[in-house]
Amino acid sequence: MTLTGPPGPPSPGPRARGAWVLRGVTAAGLLLSADVHLVLYVEGYADLDVVGPLFLLNAVAGLVLGVLVLVWRHWLPLLGAVGFGALTLAAFYLSTTVGFFGVNETVRGTQQVLAAVAEWVVVVAGTIALVVEGRRSRAASP
Prior knowledge:
Layout (H helix, E strand, L loop, with lengths): L13 H29 L8 H21 L3 H23 L12 H31 L2
Helix pairs in contact: 1-2, 1-4, 2-3, 3-4
């Protein structure tokens, strides 16, 4: 006689696993962006009138969205993540071209490159996750 444990949950299909991977990549990008903005805030951006508080807000929002993308299986955190990434990239590119609230940044450091890459990852992975999960939910609907 063979003893087996209780049956476990059904294993997720490849599309569901892909959606989880995309959520993980999106969350990683959000958390990296949050970390970079917090480090820059502590290293001197806190002294800037408008941009300093925005860096702190960016750090908190990236952390919150990163956690939400992982724990709340809804499209809203993904949409928030894509918006976060796009707005943060827009502010970064404004600051490196025409200026942003008096800050004229140059892309010269590791922190700037890391933040830009992280935000592009958030936008791309978050958008793909939205598409994949949207297709999956339409396929599951009767």
